[in-house]
Structure formats: structure tokens, C-alpha cells
Specification:
80% helix; EmrE-like; Diverse_Substrate_Transporter; EamA family transporter
């Protein structure tokens, strides 16, 4: 009996330590992601999407390769099917999310594209209602509905108070980006592959595809500050951001960590506003609904995990 009592605090400490580590990783990812739209906006003002994306994937591939080289973990043997699943999760989560997000940034006001792209937590909530057995499905469903109403207000609150002021492709790309990130956040904790092994192949595929894209558009290698900013987008928000987020999800799942992730649209929208981007009052109301519903979803899921 004494031994059993002695073990309980140790198990609790380990769980607490893992939770703290997960929150630290998640906070690091959010801090990096919050700068993505602002830096991306400055580069897209003078460079095509293909070049910005090529620099991003190059920077990310260098980061993932460095992490892989430093890692002493030996890969466990996996079946061909499991390897293909891991590759699909990494490709959709990294390449799909980032390429579609930047197409949206280039096709519509960045501040609006950013808000629509960060509806992925609401999509995760919808998946939880469908696939899991949440404690309060009605609350999750209501929060998701309110969030998507907010998205509609963001879109409708554009210039001249009319719908779809940006290119229609931009809105579709922003929603597609959110779907890809929601899929990744659900699946990354369910595959056995480590984050660096999961993301490195996808980033290399991204380098190859965006290089071909650059060749088609006409390649001109950026220099000076633009080169630094482009590589930062790859090494920071894409590289370390994805690595930190993947580590956090593998440590803690998507309960408490999810609450931290919902700070990203708040911080990124604030930075864009400080840089001169503006929303109409209608779009501001929509942004409040989007962010508020994301926070509500995150808090509910965190409470559900604590209850379990």
C-alpha cells in the first residue's frame, strides 16, 4: 500500500511536467505563427507567391533537416501503409495549409484571409462532435456555428459592404488552408512518426514543387532584407512553428494546448492592425465572433480533458 501511495505523486508529476512542456511548445508555435501574416504581407507586396513559398519551404527544410541530424531517435520499422499515411498527413498539413494560405493572402485582404484561415479550430470542434463523444456537444456546436457566422461577417464586411471583395479563389483557398490545418491537428497525434520525420519529407516535396512553380513564373532570387524575411518565414512560422505545435500535440493532445493555439488569430490580427490593415465595423464584429468562438471551443475541450 505504501508503494502505491508513493507512486501516485510521481505519476502526477510526470503528467504535470508533460503538460507544462506541451504548453511551452504550443506558446512557441503561437508566437511564431502570429508573425506569419505580417511578414508574408510585406514580401507579397513585391514578390509573387511562388518565390515567397519557395523561400519558406527552403527555410523549413533546413530546420527540419537540422533537427533530424541532431536527433538520436531511431525510427521504428513501419509498414508501407503506415508510411504512406504519415506522408499524407505531413503533406496535407504542411504543403496544403501553407500554399493555400499564401494564395489567399495574395488574392484578398491579408487581415481577412488570416481570420478565415484560422477557423481551423472550429473545424476541429466539428470533427470532435462527429467523431468523439464530447461532454457538451450542443455548446461545441453552438460555438462552431457562431464562429462561422463571424466568418460570413468578415467576408461580407469588406469594401463597400458587399460580398467577396477579394478574388473568389482567395476565399476558397483560405477555407482550404483551414481544412488542411484542422486535418493535421487531428491526425498528428495519432501517427507514431516523430515530428521531424513527419515534416522533413513534406518540406522537401514543397521545395521541389515551389521551385517548379518559380521556374514557370520566372525566377528572380530575392536579396537583402527580402531574402532574410523569406527564410525567416520558413525557419520560424513554418519550420519551428510546425515542429513546436506537433510536439505539443503529441505530448498533450488537443485539450489544454488548443486554448493556447486560439491566441494566434488575436495576436496576428493585432499586428496586422498596427501595420495599417483595417477592418470595417461589420468585419470587426465578425472577427470578435470568430476569436470568441475559438476560445470557447478551446476552454470547453480543456475542461472535458480535465474531467476525464
Amino acid at each position: 500500500m505504501v508503494k502505491h501511495r508513493d507512486r501516485a505523486p510521481c505519476l502526477f508529476f510526470r503528467h504535470g511536467s508533460g503538460s507544462i512542456s506541451a504548453l511551452v511548445f504550443a506558446a512557441g508555435a503561437v508566437a511564431l505563427w502570429s508573425t506569419n501574416a505580417l511578414v508574408g504581407k510585406s514580401l507579397l507586396a513585391s514578390h509573387p507567391v511562388s518565390q515567397v513559398q519557395f523561400l519558406q519551404f527552403t527555410g523549413a527544410a533546413l530546420v527540419f533537416a537540422a533537427i533530424r541530424l541532431r536527433s538520436r531517435e531511431r525510427a521504428a520499422p513501419v509498414s508501407a501503409g503506415a508510411a504512406l499515411v504519415s506522408l499524407a498527413v505531413g503533406f496535407i498539413g504542411l504543403v496544403g495549409t501553407m500554399v493555400l494560405q499564401y494564395i489567399a493572402f495574395a488574392s484578398m485582404p491579408v487581415i481577412e484571409a488570416n481570420l478565415v484561415a484560422y477557423t481551423w479550430p472550429l473545424m476541429v470542434a466539428a470533427a470532435v462532435i462527429t467523431l468523439d463523444n464530447p461532454r457538451r456537444p450542443a455548446l461545441l456546436g453552438l460555438a462552431a456555428v457562431v464562429g462561422f457566422i463571424g466568418v460570413a461577417l468578415v467576408i461580407s464586411g469588406g469594401r463597400n459592404q458587399s460580398w467577396l471583395q477579394g478574388d473568389f479563389v482567395g476565399y476558397v483557398a483560405a477555407f482550404g488552408s483551414a481544412l488542411c490545418m484542422a486535418f493535421y491537428s487531428i491526425m498528428v497525434g495519432r501517427v507514431a512518426t516523430s515530428p521531424d520525420r513527419l515534416l522533413l519529407p513534406s518540406s522537401l516535396i514543397g521545395v521541389a514543387l515551389t521551385f517548379l512553380w518559380c521556374v514557370r513564373d520566372g525566377f528572380a532570387w530575392p536579396v537583402g532584407t527580402d531574402l532574410v524575411f523569406g527564410l525567416y518565414l520558413g525557419a520560424g512560422p513554418m519550420g519551428l512553428g510546425y515542429y513546436f505545435w506537433s510536439r505539443a500535440l503529441k505530448l498533450e493532445g488537443s485539450g489544454k494546448v488548443a486554448v493556447v493555439a486560439y491566441l494566434t488569430p488575436i495576436a496576428s490580427t493585432l499586428l496586422l492592425s498596427l501595420s495599417g490593415e483595417r477592418l470595417t465595423m461589420t468585419a470587426i464584429v465578425g472577427a470578435v465572433l470568430v476569436i470568441g468562438s475559438c476560445v470557447a471551443v478551446g476552454v470547453e475541450r480543456s475542461e472535458a480533458e480535465n474531467h476525464v
